[in-house]
């Protein structure tokens, strides 16, 4: 249930906050300490406060690449993309193998609809961390946006060979199969995903769209109703990540089918 997810989230925030306070008392000269505290505020969506702590981390250690990456993430959250890009670039100058920063640069290019550049930087991140399924999912998102559905499917299939139950990859595989008009296979993928995350409303929205495409009006309305029951405000989607908003509005919304 979403209540359990919320409870888990708040419990995680309490634990992280306690850890951060302990770390600050123990070692104010460590950049990791300031990042831990900043992450507490970031989880609470208090981005401006988080930024102050991440800035302190790179003051303590100007060569701490992760601090610059976290600053990039925060500025990206508040859509200050030029500042975010500068911090990510600084991080990779310090550490060229810092894949989080390459991913961040790709994310900014995706937000700006510069898809070739986004793909290039996501692939750079993937070349450094080849076991990261989330990066592979984002590569597939960009490929789908570029209408390269067969290529996207190959990427997701490979990711799921390594991580068979990865929700983001399974969701995007189903969405890709729908783009390729392989509706039955897409539904099978979503059935498997439903067994892993049964309270994820996006699964039911996508099932509704597939049934509508197949001409199953009753099943489409039934799944749409279930999706709305699970998440009337559209706010509790744990699969959904910031990068997917543009993609979802193009390929998942029932209005566009």
List strands and helices in order, with pairings.
Elements: H1 2-26, H2 31-43, H3 47-60, H4 65-77, H5 81-94, H6 99-111, H7 115-128, H8 133-145, H9 149-162, H10 167-179, H11 183-196, H12 201-214, H13 217-230, H14 245-251
Sheet bearing the most strands, described?
A: none
Category by helix and strand content: mainly alpha
Continuous helix count? 14
Mean pLDDT level: 87
Q: What pattern of helices and strands is seen along the backbone?
A: HHHHHHHHHHHHHH
Uncertain regions spanning at least 5 consecutive residues: 1-8, 241-257
- The total count of strands amounts to 0
Give the distance, in angstroms, between the N- and C-terminal Cα atoms: 29 Å
Strand content: under 5%
Query: Cα-atom Rg, whole angstroms?
Result: 20 Å
How would you describe the shape? globular
How helical, in percent, are the residues?
over 70%
Briefly summarize what is shown:
76% of the residues lie in helices and 0% in strands.
Descriptors for this entry?
257 residues; mainly alpha; 14 helices; disordered N terminus; disordered C terminus
């Amino acid at each position: 249930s979403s209540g359990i997810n919320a409870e888990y989230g708040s419990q995680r925030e309490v634990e992280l906050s306690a850890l951060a306070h302990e770390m600050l008392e123990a070692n104010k000269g460590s950049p990791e300490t300031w990042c831990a505290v900043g992450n507490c505020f970031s989880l609470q969506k208090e981005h401006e406060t988080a930024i102050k702590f991440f800035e302190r981390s790179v003051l303590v250690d100007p060569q701490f690449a992760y601090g610059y990456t976290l600053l990039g993430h925060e500025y990206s959250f508040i859509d200050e993309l030029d500042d975010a890009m500068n911090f990510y670039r600084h991080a990779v100058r310090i550490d060229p193998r810092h894949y989080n920063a390459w991913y961040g640069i790709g994310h900014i290019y995706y937000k700006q609809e510069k898809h070739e550049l986004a793909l290039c930087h996501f692939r750079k991140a993937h070349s450094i961390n080849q076991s990261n399924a989330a990066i592979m999912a984002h590569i597939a998102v960009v490929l789908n946006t570029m209408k390269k559905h067969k290529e996207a499917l190959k990427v997701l299939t490979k990711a799921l060979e390594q991580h068979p139950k990865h929700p983001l990859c399974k969701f995007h595989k189903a969405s890709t199969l729908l783009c390729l008009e392989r509706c039955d296979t897409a539904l099978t993928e979503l059935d498997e995903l439903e067994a892993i995350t049964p309270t994820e409303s996006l699964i039911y929205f996508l099932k509704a769209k597939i049934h509508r495409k197949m001409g199953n009006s009753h099943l489409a309305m039934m799944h749409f109703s279930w999706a709305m029951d699970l998440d009337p405000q559209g706010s509790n989607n744990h699969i959904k990540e910031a990068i997917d908003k543009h993609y979802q509005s193009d390929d998942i919304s029932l209005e566009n089918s």
